[in-house]
Amino acid sequence: MLKYQQIAAELEKYIEDNELQQGDKLPVLEMLMAQFKVSKSTITKSLELLERKGVVYQVRGSGIFVRRHKRKGYISLLSNQGFKKDLENASVTSKVLDLKVTKPTEEAAYSLNLGADDDVYYVKRIRYINGHALCVEESYFNKAIVPYLNREIAEVSIFTYIKEGLGLKIGFSDLYLKVDMLTEEEADLLGLKPGDPKLYGESIFHLTNGLPFDYSKIAYNFEEAHFFIQANSDFS
Amino acid sequence: MLKYQQIAAELEKYIEDNELQQGDKLPVLEMLMAQFKVSKSTITKSLELLERKGVVYQVRGSGIFVRRHKRKGYISLLSNQGFKKDLENASVTSKVLDLKVTKPTEEAAYSLNLGADDDVYYVKRIRYINGHALCVEESYFNKAIVPYLNREIAEVSIFTYIKEGLGLKIGFSDLYLKVDMLTEEEADLLGLKPGDPKLYGESIFHLTNGLPFDYSKIAYNFEEAHFFIQANSDFS
DNA sequence: CAGTGGTCTAGACCACTAT
DNA sequence: TAGTGGTCTAGACCACTGG
To answer: Best residue in A53, A62, A159, A229 to probe B by mutation, most B CBs within 10 Å?
Structure first.
């Protein structure tokens, strides 16, 4: 693990363990440099990471402060690795409805830069959070990148398998969101009524080298799906 | 303007002007250093900015590549400054339904760290995009920070006024999202039916010094509200 | 193994905040 | 005006990609 990641992790743990609140001040840069025995740039880089993560904010001439949002139980739309991490005390489970090797739909081929004859893994799941149906998800994985999948993996975490089992590195994702009404099938699977509202998302995940490997369509249960985003304005 | 921001802006413009596509390669770091006559760290910082913005991705050992998402007309949930910037060819207008100085509601006071007796500006608007009703927005501004507002400002852009008129610096925001059904009043204002789906968001905007100054509740027209998020996994 | 991006350092200087 | 974070440099060294 890199120094700046290590330091960021330790600072985050320190904030967590001491239950620091919004606006609480952290030690000044010089102190942190001395404490961790690294140069200023390294500390700066750690703090940038924490800033982007929404953990701290820095005020020039004043100090480094803890940032805390005020609500619990919301799923972060930025974490990019499924939503397991955000809901510490929540158990996420999955029921696999379908899993097969097939040819991509037109939209899947387009999103994954594939031809109509390339193979993909198609996975359809219901995902539960603390026993409540959270969403219905249909995923297409480029088989050239993800050569093997099974129900056991899909029941736990496909992304963990991709990272740890296959040793692939996930780089970035595009997520498209809109609101719509549940189809009959989705309503049935989620235990809701057709015509009820849903959050509908399509996402494309890429490896660090830019190759898209996963195209997914997700319909969220409107009663369970609460999201949050922490944004910074340094590039707006 | 800082060097690294300037360089980032120029690179982005270059990509735009030359209509570079997903995966197109940019000059290597050494070239960029020479071209802009700055040190490696400065170029690196520019590219980090563009990476977070979703404009490029960098692959160690390989190069710097253009990142392009595949859909147009989606509103970025990260831009943090209203949605004007994302929709280049779209005109955003507002109809002010109410604007007054008043006392905060309980939730507004909580979100803005105010007491029940502090003054806030309350603004209620319908926002249109190319003539279509996009959302109904209710905002509360801490009057101690935003001492003056009028209908003329609210019809154009409150955020532009806050930044340019008042010289305040917007730092970061928390955005909470869920899906729900339109109330009768909202449906009426948006030209939809009660019970139709809506994306419902609450946001809290902070200055760079951490003070919250705006708490807003927004109900989006489900037919018009299409969003996207570009995420990176360097902190997941 | 050559090419390319990433990390880290040490230090100069700048810009903002608070008193 | 002292304290604090931000920018920028020059350069050493590391880690990954791809022929």
So the answer is: A229
